[in-house]
Amino acid sequence: MPLISKVSRYLRLGWDRVLTRRQIIRRGAIWSGIDISAESVSRVSTRLQCRGLAYARLERASALDLPFPDDRFDIVFAHGVLHHIPDVLTAQKEIARVLKPGGQLIAMLYARRSLNYLLAISVVRRLSLAILFLGKAESWRHGRGNDRRPYRQCQTNGPA
After folding, report:
1. How many Å apart are CA 40 and CA 72, to the nearest integer?
2. Residue 1 — pLDDT band, cuts 50, 70, 90?
3. Where are the domains of the chain?
4. What is the pTM assigned to this prediction?
5. What value, to the nearest 5°, has the Cα angle with vertex 137 and ends 133 and 140?
6. CA distance 47 to 30
7. Range 9-108 has CATH code 3.40.50.150
8. Of 45, 68, 132, 133, which has the maximum CB count within 10 A?
């Protein structure tokens, strides 16, 4: 049985940055997604609409209290999400509740002692965030902090 079929109901916990949601939808899955960030939900909604990609539901929610009925999804995908949740047992129960019998959880967890975690997450990402924060702080200091340009609608060069 193929992983994604025309009738697959697919739930994404948190977002990826690149192509998976676009590819999943284009392969015929009925895609839903949640994230705890309202801004992230808004941006993903805009990107999907701009690209004409249909989805079932997209909303701000927590993996600790999924806003879906029991036995709803064939696949729940959580890439780099579950290890950030303090009460992972409750999240696991919620995922099991919304998965159909025989459904699949596809999850990726970071190993704290892996080379990826030690370099990419502990050093590179944190350094990038610090530089970004310092740039914004400098912008605010010079009176440009209130220049909140709205998210550019329907960008054609970025990923959905």
Report:
1. 23
2. very low
3. 9-108, 112-142
4. 0.71
5. 140
6. 17
7. yes
8. 68
